[in-house]
Amino acid sequence: MASSSSSYVQQEWNMNKPAKKEPIFTKVSKLKPGTKGHTLIAKVLSSQTIDHPNARSRNLLRTPALADCLIGDETGTIIFTAHDEQVELMKPGTTVIIRNAKIDMSKGSMRLTDDLWGEIEITDPATFAVKEDNNLSLIEHENVSAVAE
What we know:
OB_Ssb-like, mainly beta, Single-stranded DNA binding protein Ssb-like OB fold domain-containing protein, 2 helices, NA-bd_OB-fold, CATH 2.40.50.140, five-stranded antiparallel beta sheet
């Protein structure tokens, strides 16, 4: 009897579960400092493994792996910082879907990275040509704080 009761509860929960929202894809040129929750399709142009003395792996049992990857779409390029297993996915020439990405600032320039719930998926090769002359990571941003009067 307990199993029929629990299956009824499970069915009831499934019926009331909200439907998944369709992702809204962001173009690279629309990325702004301090924003998050981005989903985008991009080609990987280059990937360079980096040593970072203060890096912490997301997996406590392994040495952290980091790579700076230049990615882009038809509107521009940006540096994406890949962590651990992501480094293996970010091979030049690969097209990826990056979900739940955020913009971090490093020395005044934008870097794309994923947040805690982010994920990367390899997808079919994109048909667009990457606009390589609009690298958002080369634009220096100034941190301005507002002063209350």
